[in-house]
Specification:
alpha+beta, elongated, four-stranded antiparallel beta sheet, single chain
Length: 471
């Protein structure tokens, strides 16, 4: 059994490592050479392709120039035969040669630049390039500059038409045209799908308080309540007025003749035209029939001559007397004569000697166009929008919706069916108004506004009447 010393092993490992490094370096060099070779091959192929294209373009351009020269020469000769030599265009052959010479020089310069690029790459990387053997002699150089044009020769025969030339290259782009008119609107596209619902926004600020809503309809009548306990006995009522005179009864049976009385003393002699009781009469400018305007005030006075008598008034149809009719002494006072108050009233004078009566008929004239009891609507009154007008007057009957405020009846019929107008102020703000405008009156005539109003409740406002001149 043999043993290899440690030093020998280390030397072998070192040599092996160096060998691997050299091999890796060689592989890297070959990889670089391979990539560079591919690059050079691609560049050479591109160079060859460009060169072939350039030569083709050069040959085509040369043919076109030669064809142009030939045609121009023929044109000059033809013009000379017809005596138009003075007007023949001057042909600058030198310019054409210089132009053709410049195109050729351009290609040669391009080839020289490409060759210079290869030389520069090889100088920077000498390990990648190797100089080859000397090449063959190059082709002849380009022809020299064309000499001056000789004198015009005699005109030759017209040659046969030449072959059709090669298609010309594309021309320069034309100037942009003006924009065309706006096209017709296309059909509407189909509705897109609904978008995803956005997040809930922040809570908005509290809005201003809205106007009060209209009154709701009157609810159905509630069930009848239980009978309450008996109240305490009331005090004696106020004595009623004297009732109307009753009808005269039938005469009773004749009684037996009485005894003859004692003859009295002889009395004084009286005048034959004496009347014991004067007939009651109405004082003032009144007659048996009184025609009055609606809502007019009226006072009737009843008096009598002779012995003292008690004066009473009553309606002859036994209807209840309206609260607009009051009694004061011998007077009957009508605070406002409205439908239902008109009728026949009777004054009765009662004394120890008997009763006498006098009647008067109150007739109501047709209403004026300016009168309105609101039984059939607002008449000629309208809602007017003033700067602070925030709500309107409402037509109503019976009690108002807010408890403890409005009246229970109207002023005209004095029952729950009569109509009146009112404003509901429970939900209104301070400073708000409800304005009602009348019809237009003739400013040259005097007028008197008379109305009945009802104010009750807490925090009452004002009822103002103003005149406004119409434009």
């Amino acid at each position: 059994r043999s043993t290899i010393p440690d030093d020998t092993k280390m030397a072998d490992d070192k040599e092996r490592l160096e060998c691997l490094e050299k091999r890796e370096k060689v592989n890297n060099n070959w990889t670089s050479i391979f990539l560079l070779s591919i690059f050079l091959l691609l560049e050479a192929a591109a160079f060859v392709s460009v060169t072939v294209w350039q030569e083709n373009v050069l040959e085509t351009s040369t043919q076109r120039i030669e064809t142009f020269d030939r045609l121009l020469t023929e044109l000059e000769e033809e013009c000379a035969q017809h005596g138009y030599s003075d007007y023949a265009p001057v042909y600058d052959g030198e310019q054409s040669r210089q132009k053709r010479q410049s195109i050729q020089d351009l290609f040669h310069d391009l080839l020289a630049a490409q060759e210079q690029v290869l030389i520069t790459v090889c100088q920077q990387h000498p390990d990648l390039c190797q100089f080859g053997a000397k090449g063959d002699p190059g082709d002849n150089g380009t022809p020299g500059i064309r000499g001056d044009v000789g004198p015009n020769g005699t005109a030759g025969d017209v040659g046969a038409p030449g072959e059709k030339g090669q298609p010309g290259g594309p021309g320069e782009p034309g100037i942009d045209g003006q924009p065309g008119p706006k096209g017709l609107k296309g059909d509407d596209g189909p509705q897109g799908p609904n978008g995803t619902r956005g997040e809930t926004g922040p809570k908005g600020e509290t809005g201003e308080r809205g106007p009060a809503g209209t009154d709701g309809k009157q609810g159905p009548q509630g069930p009848k309540g239980d009978v309450g306990s008996a109240g305490a006995k009331g005090g004696p009522g106020v004595a009623g007025g004297t009732g109307p005179k009753g009808e005269r009864g039938d005469a009773g049976p004749r009684g037996p003749q009485g005894d003859r009385g004692v003859r009295g003393p002889k009395g004084p002699l009286m005048e034959n035209d004496c009347e014991c009781v004067n007939v009651p009469e109405l004082t003032g400018n009144f007659s048996d029939v009184m025609s009055v305007s609606p809502h007019q005030d009226l006072v009737l006075h009843c008096d009598t001559t002779g012995p003292p008598a008690t004066i009473t008034w009553h309606r002859t149809d036994n209807k209840n007397v309206s609260k607009h009719v009051t009694f004061s002494g011998n007077d009957i006072i009508f605070s406002s004569i409205i439908p239902g108050i008109d009728g026949v009233y009777e004054c009765v004078a009662s004394s120890v000697l008997g009763d006498v009566e006098k009647s008067v008929e109150i007739k109501l004239l047709p209403p004026s166009p300016y009168d309105c009891d609101f039984e059939s609507g607002f008449c000629q009154w309208t809602q007017w929008t003033a700067p602070n007008d925030k709500f309107d007057w409402e037509l109503h009957s019976g009690s108002t919706p807010s408890s403890g405020t409005g009246p229970k009846t109207d002023h005209t019929t004095e029952d729950a069916h009569g109509k009146y107008i009112y404003i509901e102020t429970s939900n209104q703000l301070n400073g708000y108004t409800a304005d009602l405008e009348s019809m237009i009156f003739d400013p040259a005539k005097p007028y008197c506004l008379k109305l009945w109003y009802y104010l009750f409740g807490t925090s009452l406002g004002n009822v103002n009447v103003r005149d406004r001149k119409s434009v």
